[in-house]
Structures are given as C-alpha cells and as structure tokens.
UniProtKB/TrEMBL annotation:
Similarity-based family: Belongs to the bacterial ribosomal protein bL28 family.
GO MF, any single term: structural constituent of ribosome
Alphabetical GO biological process terms: translation
Gene3D superfamilies documented for this protein: Ribosomal protein L28/L24
The species this protein was found in: Cellulomonas gilvus (strain ATCC 13127 / NRRL B-14078)
Highest taxon above the source species: Bacteria
Key words, A-Z: Ribonucleoprotein, Ribosomal protein
The protein's name: Large ribosomal subunit protein bL28
Signal peptide (residue range): none
Length: 78
C-alpha cells in the first residue's frame, strides 16, 4: 500500500540524513498514516480510510460527510 493520505493526499517527502561529520545520505519522510474506521450517515455504513494524523484533525473539523463527499468527487472509491 502506498504511504498516501486519502483525505489530504499527503505523500512521502525526500531529503538527507546529515551525520555529525556532515555526511549526507538519502532518506524518506513518511506521513503518519493510520487506518481509521468511520460511520458515515449519508452512506449508512462504516468506511475504512487510510488517513494521516493531520487528516484525522481535518475530518474532526469539517465532518466525515463532507470529507467523504470530497473524496468521491475526486473519483476515488471508498
């Protein structure tokens, strides 16, 4: 499964790990992806989403119905 948030579309970032001697090696910054189940009243069922921690806060702020509608408008299957 890709490390991608279904709500925000957050994807891994890339950069360098810098050691004490200042040598640089490539590294990957993954978003904090969680599997979370929500009851969606408009659909009348539970849905499981792969969301980042920031995506969970977005759902709390906007409401699950509006977030699910936005995901479906993008054409993503839930």
């Amino acid at each position: 499964m890709p490390a991608r948030c279904q709500v925000l579309g957050a994807v891994p970032g890339f950069g360098h790990s810098v050691s004490h001697s200042h040598r640089r090696t490539r590294r990957r910054f993954d978003p904090n992806i969680q599997r979370k189940r929500y009851w969606v009243p408009s659909l009348g069922r539970r849905v499981t989403l792969r969301v980042s921690a920031r995506g969970i806060k977005t759902i709390d702020r906007l409401g699950i119905d509006s977030v699910v509608a936005r995901i479906q408008a993008r054409g993503e299957r839930i």
